[in-house]
Structure formats: C-alpha cells, structure tokens
Amino acid sequence: MVDEQQLLRYIQQLEVYSVTICGNLLIITLVFTSKNLHTPMYFFISQLSVSDILLPTDIVPNMLYILLNNGATITFFNCMAQLYFFCIAESSECLLLTVMSYDRYLAICKPLRYISIMTDTLCLKLVVTFWLLCFSFSFTYILIILGLKFCGPNIIDHLFCDLVPLQGLACFDTFPIKLSINVLSITFMVFPSIIIVVSYVKIVHAILKISSNVSRHKAFSTCSSHLSVVSIFYFTIFIVYNLPTKGQASDVNKILSLFYTVFTPLINPIIYSFRNKDIKKAVGETLKKCF
Question: What percentage of the chain exceeds 90 in pLDDT?
C-alpha cells in the first residue's frame, strides 16, 4: 500500500521531471528555430539541455518506481546501463561547461577574433568530439566496474546505481580499480575545472580593465548565468564524492545526489532564460507564430 506521504513525493518528483523535460526541450527548440539564437553560446546551451534531459531520464523513472514500492530490485545489467548513461550525462556536462567557459573567454577577451575562431564548423566538431569522448569514457568506466567481484547482500543504499555504493558492495580489495577510476575522474573533472578557473580569471581581469561601469556590467552579465551553473554543478559534485558514505553523511549524500541529478537539470534552463533578452524574444516570436 502507498501512503499519502509516498504519493506526495511521487507526484512532486513527477512534476519536477515533467517540467525539466519541457523546459530543456523548449531551449533546444528555440535554439534551432530562432535565427537570433544561432550563435555558438546558444548552440552549446542546447547541447547542455540534451545532457539535462538524459540525466533525469536515466534516474527518475526508476526512482519513481522505488517510491511506489518502498524499494525495488534492479538487475545487474540494468544497474550497469543506468551507471553508463549517468556517466555520459555527467561527463558531457563537464566538457560542455568547459567549452562554454572558453567561448565566454573568447567573446570578452578576444572580441575581434571571436567570429573567426568560434566558427560553426569548429562548434560542431567540438560537440561531436565531446559526445564521442563521453561515450568512450563511460564505456571504459563500466569495463573497470565489471572487474569488481560482488558478494551479498547486494543492497544499494542509494537512490540509483552510483559508483560509491557499488564499490561498497565489492568483496575484495578494490584499490587498483579505485586508482584506475580516480585517474579517469581526474581526466574528466579536474582538467576541465582548471580550464574553467583559468578562463574566468582572465575574464575577470579583462572586465576590471573596462573603464565604463555600464560596459563592465554588460560584460559580466554575459557570463553570469554560466558561472552560476558551473558553481552549482561542481559544488554538489565535490561534496557528494568527498563526503563519508556511512551514517548521517550518507543521507546528506543522497539529498545532494537528488539535487544534481534531478533539480540541477530543472534549474539550468531557468537560469539561462532568466533575464535573457534573446531567449525572451525567441519565446515571444514562437508564441506569435503559434497563436
């Protein structure tokens, strides 16, 4: 039997998931149909929306099933598949946020060369390369996980099949595998974060050199949305994978995992749409065409 509290949680999660999908689909549709959004920045935002659709779609349906059934079983194959697409979504977000920070760096620090450098061909090549890297990285990740030997009880004390709870189920020393996983994680997390930090240090330096307060505010507003998304994403990721995995910290871990897998994809399109004149204009034009 499903009690009222469970049903309320189910409805809330379903509403959040529905709004997330609709919001990100709207961003994708606007970018590809509105001429004023045919720029590198909005092209990358549309790809970020693809990632923000993939992530909750991989996690939420099974989570809703768990809510209705007070827990559930998942086959080993389905668990690996969930982890695979989870890795794809997370790694793609890392790489996309990185190239978006570089795009903002070029737009603010190299405005005269921006159009000649960030061409449509380069943007397309970057995105295709990134997605191929994410699929390859995630496949390698899964192959390493398959090297673990699991022994009962095979109970995952988490909302989905994530790396940390799976490692906790291993029944022998996992140090070599943990080392391999850490090397991969550093490649896809630390290096992108370094590029983002360096890009924004140069951006801030360039903005501070602008004499006009109006121009300075305008320059900062062009990257404030991206900076907000980067801060939320990396802050939650850092806490989730650096907190202890037992006791109360584990419960905090679950809440934060829920935040960056469900609520962050909901927040991203809102952040990029809020106070964005181009997107508001595109929405207005689309509504005029429809009605």
Answer: 16
Question: What does pLDDT average to over the chain?
Answer: 81
Which pair of structure tokens corresponds to residue 286?
A: 């689309």
Q: Who's near 56: CB < 8 A, 6+ residues apart? A: 17, 20, 21, 261, 262, 265, 266
What are the CB-based long-range contacts (under 8 Å, 24+) for 34-40? 34/281, 34/282, 34/285, 34/286, 36/278, 36/281, 36/282, 37/278, 37/279, 37/282, 40/103, 40/118, 40/120, 40/123
pTM of the model: 0.87
